[in-house]
User: Which sequence fits this backbone?
């Protein structure tokens, strides 16, 4: 009798195991780099990416529930602007070209778009502060303790920094975690992504970073042209030739056929200023005098959608940018060697060449990227 009971008990089906998070595979576009910047402790999963998408658009990430006090990643990174702010953004300051946090304090730099960041390995931000080599923890000015997970190494780092920074959300980590944990849809989503329903800042950071790594833009008219699926107009093709030649001299820093990211993602003094300023250049990070006036070279993908331009947002149009490179370069001791025409103020393009170059830059706009429902607000 005991043997029979034992057999019956063993035969009873137990509670089914919880499904494991499913791997998310990033599809690498043709001619793009194959090495991805994904930390080993945050593998991409379908559930993690979906959770990250919800959190990216979650205004209550600020830890507040009042409508006028909500702020999310989306507040400053809008899909229609290639995940840049746009100059019609309520947080955009027309006087400085920079963004304003909930406190009204301006950001140190203008916005950088969230485009193809999974392919970057040389640090993030205009001065490369967020980098795998950065050993700093926490931020006393933000009230964040010097301990993990509050490092400054990767995309995950931006989330806690955004929450705590006075020029952004200006909240507290504890309040944000408690707010997300109190919203009924999230604990089950955290369980699906991480195995348990516990909401932590580490998991919030990891989920949002996973989503941001999926923001890949590679379907512009230029891409279709290179694949033989589209034709450039006469002006666009002439601009393409200018871009790829010493005449306009864009390709040294922004690549092209051999660099589909349209940036080397290095740091360059492009002749914008002749004197050192306080806008946190590369020298601010390295303290190397050779880095004075150097800033990260941004991608040109979707450039027509990502005004204002330069680290301080001083230029509002592509026309202003092209005019600067044509006639406005200023020499300084750390000027990039590729600024070969600095002694004559720039490359001295004609009006026709300027128009053609701008026409080509518009071919880098990726309409599928800014309308992709996988990237949109849930």
Assistant:
């Amino acid at each position: 009798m005991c043997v029979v009971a034992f057999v019956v008990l063993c035969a009873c089906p137990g509670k089914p195991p919880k499904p494991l998070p499913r791997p998310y595979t990033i599809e690498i576009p043709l001619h793009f780099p194959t090495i991805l910047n994904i930390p080993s402790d945050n593998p991409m999963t379908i559930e993690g990416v979906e959770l990250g998408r919800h959190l990216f658009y979650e205004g209550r990430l600020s830890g507040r529930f009042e409508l006028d006090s909500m702020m999310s990643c989306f507040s400053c990174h809008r899909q229609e602007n290639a995940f840049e702010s746009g100059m019609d953004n309520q947080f955009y300051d027309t006087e400085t070209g920079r963004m304003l946090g909930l406190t009204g304090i301006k950001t140190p730099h203008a916005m950088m778009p969230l485009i193809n960041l999974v392919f970057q390995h040389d640090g993030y931000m205009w001065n490369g502060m967020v980098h795998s080599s950065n050993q700093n923890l926490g931020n006393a000015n933000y009230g964040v303790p010097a301990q993990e997970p509050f490092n400054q190494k990767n995309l995950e780092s931006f989330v806690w920094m955004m929450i705590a920074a006075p020029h952004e959300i200006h909240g507290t980590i504890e309040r944000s975690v408690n707010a997300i944990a109190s919203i009924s849809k999230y604990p089950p989503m955290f369980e699906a992504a991480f195995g348990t329903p516990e909401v932590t800042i580490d998991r919030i950071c990891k989920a949002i970073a996973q989503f941001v790594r999926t923001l890949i833009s590679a379907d512009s008219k230029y891409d279709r042209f290179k694949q033989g699926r589209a034709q450039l107009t006469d002006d666009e093709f002439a601009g393409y030739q200018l871009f790829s030649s010493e005449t306009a001299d864009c390709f040294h820093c922004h690549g092209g056929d051999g660099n589909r990211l349209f940036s080397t993602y290095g740091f360059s003094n492009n002749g914008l200023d002749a004197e050192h300023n306080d806008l946190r250049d590369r020298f601010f990070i390295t303290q190397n005098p050779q880095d004075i006036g150097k800033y990260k070279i941004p991608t040109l993908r979707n450039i027509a959608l990502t005004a204002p331009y330069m680290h301080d947002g001083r230029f509002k149009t592509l026309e202003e940018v092209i005019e600067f490179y044509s006639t406005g370069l200023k020499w300084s001791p750390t000027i990039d060697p590729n600024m070969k025409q600095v002694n004559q103020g720039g490359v001295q393009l004609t009006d026709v060449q300027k128009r053609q170059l701008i026409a080509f830059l518009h071919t880098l706009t990726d309409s599928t990227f800014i309308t992709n429902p996988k990237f949109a607000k849930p």
About this structure: The longest strand covers residues 92-93.
